[in-house]
Design brief:
Elements (H helix, E strand, L loop, with lengths): L12 E5 L7 H5 L1 H4 L1 H28 L4 H21 L18 E5 L9 H8 L1 H28 L4 H21 L20 H33 L1 E7 L1 H5 L7 E3 L2 E9 L15 E12 L12 E5 L4 E2 L3 E4 L12 E11 L4 E6 L11 E7 L1
Parallel strand pairs: 3-12
Antiparallel strand pairs: 1-2, 4-5, 5-6, 6-10, 7-8, 7-11, 9-10, 11-12
Length: 379
C-alpha cells in the first residue's frame, strides 16, 4: 500500500485501507470462519494490552509520559487488530499476517507518539468519549447494514461498492481515533468526523460532549424503556382463571393451568388462617388468608416459588406481596424439572375486604414486562 502522508493539522491517528479492484467470492463466503485463528490471538493479546494501559495510566499520572516501549506495543496491537477488522469487514482479500509490522498489509494504521500528556485527562477521558460511543453505535449499525449489502454485491459482482467501502472505512477511522484517545495514546479530542483530514476536536466540542451526554443518555434510556414496555405488552400474556371464592374455601380445586412449562393448580384457601403459632398475629383490623397451590415444573428452566413471584389484589384494590411462602422442605425456592410441590402462600387482608385476584409468575415475568402469568380471579 502506498504510504499516505497525514494531512497537516489532521488528527494524529492515521487509518486507511487501500481500495481493492477485485475481491474473491469464495473467500468472502467463508470469511468469518477463516478469521477465527486471528480472533483468538487478538483476544489473548487484548488482555496484555489491558495490563499495559493500566501501567501507563500511573506512568502518565506521575511523569506525564507514556513509556515509549509500551506505547509502541499498544500501537502494534491496534495495527494488528485493524488488519483483522478490515479483513473481516470484507475490505481486503489478503489474509492478515500474524504480525504487526507496518507495510505488510494494505491497511495503514499509525499513532504519532506524544511527548507529553495531561495528568488530569486520564481521569475523565472515559466520560468525555461517551457521546462518541453513542454516535459510533448508530454509525456501526449502518456499517453492518452496508457490510451485508456489500457481501451480496461481492458474491454477485466480485467488487465492493465504492461508496459503501468509503463509509465503512470512515466509521473504522472514527473508531480508532476514539480508541486511541480513550486508551491514553493521545490527548487531542477526537473529531466527530469520518474524514481522513479531520482536525482534533476543539474545546467547544469537548464542552458539548460533556454537557450533551446527560440529555442524550436520558433520552436513550427513556426510548429503551418505552420499547421494552411496548414489546412486553405485545409479548406478555396472562392466563386468567375465574373461580368462585366460596368454592376455593370449600376445597374445590381449579383445573390445571399450563404456563411457561409449568402446571399450576389452585387447591384451596383458608380465610381466616391461623398463622400466629408460627409467625405472628395480624395487625388490628386485619386477618391472615392462605392459599394452597400445587406447582409442577414440567419443562421449565426457571421455576421459582419465593415471595417475589406471588401477588394478591383485594376488593379494596390494594396490591400486596405475600407475608410467607411455605414449601416442603422448608427453604425451597426453586423447582427442578419434573418436580411437584405443594406451596402455601399467606397474605394479610383487611377485615371487610376479600381477595380479588391471586397472581403467580413462575419466571422472569415477576420482574420484567415479559413472559406469562396465571391470575386467579375470585367472584
Amino acid at each position: 500500500m502506498p504510504v499516505l502522508a497525514r494531512a497537516p493539522g489532521a488528527y494524529p491517528v492515521t487509518f486507511d485501507v487501500e481500495y481493492p479492484a477485485k475481491l474473491s467470492r469464495l473467500g468472502t463466503l467463508f470469511r468469518l470462519l477463516i478469521a477465527i485463528p486471528q480472533l483468538l490471538v487478538i483476544y489473548a493479546l487484548g488482555t496484555v494490552v489491558g495490563i499495559i494501559t493500566f501501567i501507563a495510566w500511573f506512568a502518565i499520572l506521575f511523569t506525564r509520559r507514556y513509556p515509549k516501549g509500551l506505547f509502541e506495543l499498544v500501537v502494534s496491537f491496534n495495527r494488528w487488530t485493524a488488519n483483522v477488522h478490515a479483513y473481516m469487514a470484507l475490505l481486503r482479500d489478503e489474509y492478515p499476517p500474524f504480525s504487526s509490522d507496518p507495510g505488510r498489509y494494505p491497511v495503514l494504521y499509525d499513532v504519532e507518539y506524544p511527548e507529553m500528556l495531561s495528568r488530569w485527562l486520564i481521569f475523565v477521558k472515559w466520560f468525555l468519549v461517551l457521546l462518541h460511543q453513542i454516535v459510533l453505535y448508530f454509525l456501526g449499525l449502518f456499517a453492518i447494514l452496508a457490510g451485508i449489502i456489500a457481501y451480496f454485491a461481492i458474491l454477485i459482482t466480485g467488487r465492493f461498492p465504492r461508496a459503501l467501502f468509503t463509509y465503512i472505512v470512515g466509521v473504522m477511522r472514527w473508531y480508532y481515533r476514539v480508541n486511541a484517545y480513550s486508551s491514553l495514546l493521545r490527548d487531542e479530542f477526537p473529531p466527530y468526523s469520518r474524514r481522513a483530514d479531520a482536525r482534533p476536536g476543539s474545546g467547544r466540542a469537548i464542552a458539548v460532549s460533556a454537557v450533551m451526554i446527560f440529555p442524550v443518555s436520558i433520552g436513550l434510556i427513556a426510548a429503551f424503556v418505552g420499547v421494552a414496555l411496548l414489546v412486553g405488552t405485545i409479548t406478555s400474556s396472562t392466563e386468567r382463571v375465574s373461580v368462585r371464592y366460596a368454592d376455593v374455601l370449600a376445597g374445590d380445586s381449579t383445573a390445571p393451568v399450563d404456563i411457561e412449562g409449568n402446571v399450576v393448580v389452585l387447591l384451596s384457601a383458608e380465610d381466616p388462617y391461623n398463622l400466629s403459632g408460627v409467625f405472628r398475629k395480624p395487625r388490628v383490623g386485619y386477618r391472615f388468608v392462605q392459599f394452597q397451590l400445587e406447582i409442577t415444573n414440567v419443562d421449565s428452566a426457571f421455576t421459582s416459588v419465593n415471595k417475589q413471584h406471588f401477588g394478591l389484589t383485594d376488593t379494596d384494590g390494594r396490591d400486596q406481596g405475600p407475608l410467607l411462602v411455605q414449601v416442603r422442605p422448608l427453604g425451597r425456592v426453586q423447582l427442578e424439572r419434573g418436580e411437584t410441590e405443594r406451596v402455601g402462600v399467606a397474605f394479610e387482608v383487611r377485615d371487610g375486604a376479600n381477595p380479588s385476584e391471586l397472581t403467580y409468575a413462575p419466571g422472569l415475568a415477576a420482574f420484567i414486562p415479559f413472559g406469562e402469568k396465571v391470575r386467579f380471579e375470585f367472584r
